[in-house]
């Protein structure tokens, strides 16, 4: 087999290179960039899509918050409704997104909020009494003894998440509906004792537990301020008190964020 003779100009030394070796060197020069490219980690296309979805959601949230600010400036009464919606939007800002399906779920809920916001603007502009469906008054005259969020359980000593607040008051103290709505549950539930659940408009639902007695019927429509029961000690409780919860589309809300009246603390 023939050989290739190479004479380097700097040394003048004659070198013989086998053609196969020459081909291998040439192939290495040509293929090296290709190999390096293939070895580089490819950008995950799903991550790109996820980032795009994230910024689209962020844009929608910013738009909704702008609309809420407009509501607050227009009318003092609307400010309360705007705060309620903003509390809902903050949940999505704090939500950890781990998959595309999470984005789809949040997208859907953001769209629901947008429609809800438009409905609020339209209805309240026509009839301010629509705000009667927003749970914004104190359910009972008493003292706040347990807040919303992470608390230490006095019975077990363990930390747990409280989905509502507890207000202490003497047994028999009237408990009032914090907004107009329909009674969707009245009865006894383990831990909660005697309780009432009211469904309001715009996705709100309120719960009143540890009642001594219940004064409303299932399916009954109650107006804001109506007495629905009295404070008691039923269920798991440390004394006579009302356990009160607000949920917006099933998501627990801090009731204190909705109250237009100041609650007493011990």
TrEMBL record:
Entry-linked PANTHER family: L-ALA--D-GLU ENDOPEPTIDASE (PTHR21666:SF289), PEPTIDASE-RELATED (PTHR21666)
Protein name (Swiss-Prot/TrEMBL): M23ase beta-sheet core domain-containing protein
Domain M23ase beta-sheet core per the UniProt entry, residue ranges: 161-255
Keywords: Coiled coil, Membrane, Signal, Transmembrane, Transmembrane helix
Gene3D superfamilies: Glucose Permease (Domain IIA) (2.70.70.10)
Lineage: Bacteria, Bacteria division WOR-3
Top-rank lineage group of the source organism: Bacteria
GO molecular function: metalloendopeptidase activity
Residues passing through the membrane, by range: 20-39
Coiled coil: 61-88
Matching CDD domains: M23_peptidase (cd12797)
Leader peptide range in chain numbering: none
């Amino acid at each position: 087999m023939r050989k290739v003779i190479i004479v380097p100009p700097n040394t003048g030394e004659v070198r013989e290179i086998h053609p196969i070796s020459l081909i291998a060197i040439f192939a290495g020069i040509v293929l090296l960039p290709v190999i390096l490219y293939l070895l580089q980690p490819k950008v995950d296309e799903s991550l790109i899509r996820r980032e795009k979805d994230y910024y689209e959601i962020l844009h929608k949230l910013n738009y909704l918050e702008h609309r809420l600010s407009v509501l607050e400036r227009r009318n003092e009464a609307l400010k309360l409704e705007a705060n309620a919606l903003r509390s809902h939007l903050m949940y999505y800002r704090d939500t950890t997104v781990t998959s595309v399906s999470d984005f789809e779920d949040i997208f859907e809920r953001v769209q629901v909020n947008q429609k809800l916001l438009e409905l609020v603007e339209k209805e309240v502009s026509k009839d301010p009494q629509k705000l009667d469906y927003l749970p914004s008054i104190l359910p009972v005259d008493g003292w706040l003894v347990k807040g919303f969020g992470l608390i230490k359980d006095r019975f077990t000593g363990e930390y747990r998440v409280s989905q509502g607040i507890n207000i202490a008051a003497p047994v028999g103290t009237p408990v009032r509906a914090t907004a107009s709505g329909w009674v969707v549950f009245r009865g006894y539930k383990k831990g909660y004792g005697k309780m009432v659940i009211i469904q309001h408009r715009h996705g709100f639902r309120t719960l009143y537990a540890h009642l001594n007695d219940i004064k409303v019927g299932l399916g009954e429509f109650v107006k804001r301020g109506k007495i629905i029961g009295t404070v008691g000690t039923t269920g798991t409780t440390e004394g006579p008190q009302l356990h009160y919860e607000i949920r917006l589309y099933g998501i627990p809300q801090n009731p204190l964020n909705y109250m237009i009246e100041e609650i007493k603390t011990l």
